[in-house]
Amino acid sequence: MRALSLSRSLVRPAARTAVAAAAAGALALGPAGSASAATATRTVTDGGTTYRLSLTAPGAAAAAGENITVTGSGYNPGQGIYVGLCAVNGAQGAGKPTPCLGGSDQSGTTGASHWIHNLFGGTLANTSTYGPGGTFSVTIHVKADLGGGQICGETVQCAVVTRADHFNSGKRTYDVHAPISFN
Q1: pTM for the complete prediction?
Q2: Terminus-to-terminus CA distance in the chain, angstroms?
Q3: Beta strand pairing status for 60-61 and 181-182?
Q4: Cβ pair 27, 166 in contact under 8 A
Q5: CA 114 to each of CA 21, 22, 27, 83, 109: distance values in angstroms, whole numbers, following the listed order
Q6: By the 8 A CB rule, do 60 and 2 touch?
Q7: CB 73, CB 137: distance < 8 Å
Q8: What is the pLDDT of residues 101-147, one digit of tens each?
Q9: What per-residue string of b and e applies to 96-132 under the rule 16 or more CB within 10 Å gives b?
């Protein structure tokens, strides 16, 4: 099992142990060959309805870049979300995951992010609508270098995330982080 990789210069040994234990608790090994599956699950209540949010992605990806499949279920079909690789700081919902690889990839050139929205999904590259019950399955391209000197596992902690789209970008209840490390 591979825990989240953080630079020694960023984390003291005691803190690294705590982060590794927390990440290991979120990892579930699967029959995915060399990449284990990292799963993050979160239950939120919004408007009196409880949503169970799940996100699955590889636990170790190629640093130079790799396509991964991200799935989810139980999402609120009335709330659009972005799916992508982002720098995260703190617990899910504590702060907006940013920066994210690819930003708003409306041209479809990087494949690094995906927008899921029931009204506008499918109208641009890298967009789709939810399936039954708030489900989705998308492919995104991830790599360790987020740009601007921010390298996953070296200078920033990264995760594959879902977060509320630009129609409600301040709402943190839809944030789900699936820790990912790179070879």
Answers
A1: 0.73
A2: 13
A3: parallel
A4: no
A5: 30, 27, 23, 5, 12
A6: yes
A7: no
A8: 876 666 666 788 999 999 998 888 889 999 998 999 998 999 999 99
A9: bbeebbbeebeeeebbbbbbbbeeebeeeebbbebee
